[in-house]
Design brief:
- A 4-stranded parallel beta sheet has the order 5-4-6-7.
- It is α/β, with parallel strands linked by helices.
- 43% of the residues lie in helices and 10% in strands.
- The termini are far apart.
- It contains 23 helices and 11 strands.
Length: 427
């Protein structure tokens, strides 16, 4: 049985046996260096030479207990050029890009951004079978520019229910102040479309000169990058850079933390830098204008979930809380694990398309565990600021038998409700 790290435990285990240091790093029987990846070793493998094998990554990973190989062991095998056992294990598909390992690595290794995408890329190039839903999402993105497999003409249909004009950049034929990248789930998923509609109304109310890309928009590609589809990500970057260069605008905003993550951290490394903000930043900077519009009380005890991209990777903890505190009637309470210690919802880095694999290996989803943290606060509303989280947490409320005890609302929905009254947010 492959070694596993138990939650809260030290070292690798096989059954009930604690493995010794020599056993932990023994080469799996029958393994041999993979010539395609280690003869010579590829650049990403050399990047992990400074690894001191402290095991902090495995201890920080919320799913390491279910992995056939912990990140520490995978790094050791990669350094030795022994990738076959790793590529054929489940550990490739249990990373949800929570960035815990990266944030806590004492050597500063980019485990989330380099190790797991490289392993998945190697598995794809080796022709190994990918999880079905995962593969379908990547295929959809290749064909349609979004993982949901929807056509470009449908990308703007959400705007019909916004109740305010939503300008499209190609139709404006003039410079504008703000380009709003709506991204895929708010464009197509019914649960997230109400959040896009709320954001359109808020932008209008605070007097922002904005436009969207509409049918021209494609996914920014952060989850595809972390999923290991390097070629797909590069094609998305090429398309998006060419598209954005067509228009004159002052800055970009988005409601998707994953898009924000790539545009602020990855696109610049590829030579393209844009002024970009997540909506929580953008609106927090305009609280003097926004706050007088929040005229309806939202009498609720609210707890906020720090998503991984805005929080651990980009350090945006205060802006979402400032917005929530500005809503009359809201009492903000914190979860046991908040800010940099917040537990991931499990949807990042392709996790949205790996729930079945994760459930089979771990017996739960991270969103199920996180709902327990939220319920412990006694809050009636779980506030989020990522499109993935609304449906994930609502599903978890049902699957854990807690439907009706709490509702999930994006901060946009709560702001909209305070602006417009009870009908402002979806029920």
């Amino acid at each position: 049985m492959p070694g596993r790290v138990r939650p809260g435990g030290e070292g690798l285990h096989r059954g009930d046996e604690v493995l010794s240091g020599d056993q932990q790093f023994a080469v799996p029987a029958g393994s041999a260096p993979s010539s395609a990846l280690s003869d010579p070793r590829t650049a990403w493998q050399w990047e992990f030479n400074p690894c001191i094998q402290c095991g902090m990554c495995g201890g920080a990973c919320p799913l390491a207990f279910a992995m056939d190989h912990t990140p520490r062991r995978a790094i050791y095998l990669a350094k030795e050029g022994l990738l076959d056992p790793v590529l054929r294990s489940n550990m490739l598909w249990l990373c949800v890009s929570c960035y815990n390992c990266t944030a806590r690595c004492p050597t500063g290794l980019k485990i989330t951004d380099i190790l797991f995408p490289a392993l998945r890329d190697a598995a794809i190039n080796a022709g190994l079978q990918l999880p079905g839903e995962f593969k379908k999402a990547l295929d959809n993105t290749y064909r349609y520019g979004n993982s949901l497999g929807e056509g470009p003409r449908k990308r703007i249909e959400w705007a019909k229910g916004a109740g305010v004009p939503v300008p499209v950049a190609s139709q404006l034929r003039r410079p504008f102040d703000v380009l709003w990248l709506v991204e895929c789930y708010p464009s197509y998923h019914p649960r997230n479309q109400v959040q896009a509609q709320a954001m359109a109304r808020i932008l209008r109310a605070v007097g922002v000169d904005f436009a969207i890309l509409g049918p021209e928009e494609h996914c920014v590609g952060d989850c595809e990058r972390l999923a290991g589809e390097k070629g797909l990500f590069e094609s998305l970057v090429e398309y998006n850079v060419s598209l954005l260069d067509k228009y004159e605008f002052g800055e970009i905003i988005t409601s998707d933390p994953h898009a924000f993550n790539s545009l602020t951290r990855v696109y610049p490394a590829l030579g393209k830098t844009y002024p970009v903000k997540h909506y929580v930043q953008f609106l927090a900077e305009r609280l003097d204008t926004l706050k007088p519009l929040l005229t309806h009380r939202v009498e609720a005890r609210v707890t906020y979930h720090d998503n991984c991209c805005l929080g651990r990777m980009c350090g945006l903890y205060d802006a979402p809380r400032e917005l929530l505190r500005a809503i009359p009637g809201v009492t903000l309470v914190e979860m046991p694990f908040a800010r940099e210690n917040a537990l991931c919802c499990g949807g990042g880095g392709g996790g949205m398309w790996l729930d079945t694999v994760i459930w089979q290996a771990a017996g739960e989803r991270l969103s199920d565990r996180r709902i327990g943290h939220a319920l412990a606060t006694g809050a009636g509303i779980l506030a989020v600021s990522c499109p993935f989280e609304s449906s994930r947490f609502e599903d978890s409320l049902k699957s854990t038998g807690n439907e009706g005890t709490m509702v999930v609302r994006d901060i946009l929905e709560l702001l909209d409700e305070s602006m417009r009254g009870r009908g402002g947010a979806a029920a």
